[in-house]
Amino acid sequence: MTAAQGRPLPTVAELEAQEARLVLPRFTYDDAWVLGSLLVERSRLREAPVAIDIRRGGQQLFHCALPGSSADNDAWIDRKRRVVERYGASSFLVGARFRAKGSTFEDSSRLDPDRYAAHGGSFPIAVRGAGVVGTVTVSGLPQEEDHALVVAALERTLEQMLSA
Which pairs from 140-143 meet CB under 8 Å and 24+ separation? Predict the structure, then answer.
């Protein structure tokens, strides 16, 4: 399968390596604000019509809907986030694992597609020594772009935390 721009989608190994690399030293309310603000800034520069959601446990710490997004994006956020919460892996990685086995998430997961979507854009927030503590989700672009936007923001956030 290929991405919208004709590039191949990331492999399972590449997606797993992203998750292994993007483990934060902490995740506070302030960190959620920094990450969310960075996502908003990058999305505005691209004029991306996205909604952004950050959660820790069951609490929503950040939400923003940019021009061009709609309530449908919030529904996609919920569906992708539920996949991360259930599998402990990014929604894109979960979908890729099903595709690598020659199937699809929708055909093989036995989960309600109205409540779960293994499409790119939701990523686990993992903290060293604690594991997955939350999610960061973007919806509004093609799935590989939603995923890439989140990964780039997490990479920058981790870089800032480690240099502080």
Answer: 140/48, 140/49, 140/50, 140/51, 140/66, 140/68, 140/69, 140/73, 141/48, 141/49, 141/50, 142/3, 142/4, 143/92, 143/95, 143/119
